[in-house]
Amino acid sequence: MGRPLSPRALITGITGQDGAYLAELLVDKGYEVHGMVRRASTEKFERIEHLRERITLHQGDLLDQRSLVDAIRASRPDEIYNLAAMSFVAVSWIQPTLTAEFTGVGVTRMLEAMRETAPEARFYQASSSEMFGKVREVPQTESTPFYPRSPYGVAKVYGHHITVNYRESYGLHATSGILFNHESPLRGLEFVTRKITWHAAAIKHGLRDHISLGNLDARRDWGYAKDYVEAMWLMLQQDRADDYVIATGRSNSVRDCVEIAFDQAGLGSWEPYVRLDPQFVRPAEVDHLIGDASKAARELGWRPKTSFEELIRLMVDADMKLLGG
Ligand code: NAP
Ligand code: F7E
After folding, report:
1. pLDDT tens profile 175-189
2. CATH superfamily of 8-182+225-246
3. How far is the CA of 247 from the centre of ligand 2 (A)?
């Protein structure tokens, strides 16, 4: 059966960084885009404000099966992108069981809702390089064994395996994208790259006089979120559901990020502004996270377009503009 000319997509987590970029990409591609949002006393839809007239929102929560079934029934999606999760690793030690519910069991709830109401749809699960944790090999591929090092990583391993299990048990078109860190001007302020670019801009504008950070030697394989949502879409255009690693294949340290950001903000040397604070050091750290995305290059034709340095510089520029009024 051919793909519909004007397909419908449902995005959970549409108010997040990736949800916003993916919604934009799908709207541009002519999709009818639906998003699932959870109720809050104050709406926080800033990232999708510019798209509000062109998307349809449905109330729902990963903890509430009824709402997931209703969101799928109402949107009748050809593609479901399950991006919703408690995504901040540091908080997963503070709320470990809630993280398991959202980030782990929430995936089963979504798959069950899809099996019941839209079994022909294609499903994307937002898996993570955090599943590799204490890495078993470098670089990591789709066949590298998992060794998660945080409650978040453990929950994502569950979400990954249940996606594969539903694919094999019920023949669902269910794909797991194993994405390494990806950042942007829409990144939450608690994540280290955005924390650094925002503070560099704030210091330059005289709004702050320092930034407190944890482990400056921590390294990650960081890419640009806009490049990565394209990979999500490409995965669901394949006839066969599968697993794909998405990464740049290069790693940089938090220190490298600080150096580039402070240079871009025109602050010169960063040392006088950076304080080390143990509250930002994790109970367990992950080392040597470097992804090998050659399967995605071969089968999807996907390659990262934006280097780490370009990414941090564009994030600083965006924060300079944001704070400069
Ligand atoms: P994000 O900015 O933190 O967005 C998370 C989204 O999930 C938000 O829209 C949030 O809604 C929603 N959400 C959280 N709990 C929910 C619940 N119980 N019910 C319904 N919605 C809920 O995350 P992101 O960076 O865009 O990441 C998207 C996904 O990819 C996540 O699953 C993340 O774990 C995964 N991932 C991210 C990266 C990365 O580097 N960014 C790498 C690998 C995997 P509110 O706005 O209401 O809070
Ligand atoms: O930390 C170190 C910290 O919080 C990166 C999520 O999107 O990517 C993200 O998880 C590194 C860590 O991201 C601070 O110890 C130092 O080593 O930006 P982060 P993360 O934990 O890698 C993965 C792939 C996901 O799936 C997640 O959803 O930076 N670090 N000092 C710090 N980190 C923070 N947040 N704050 C600091 O002050």
Report:
1. 999 999 999 999 999
2. NAD(P)-binding Rossmann-like Domain (3.40.50.720)
3. 16
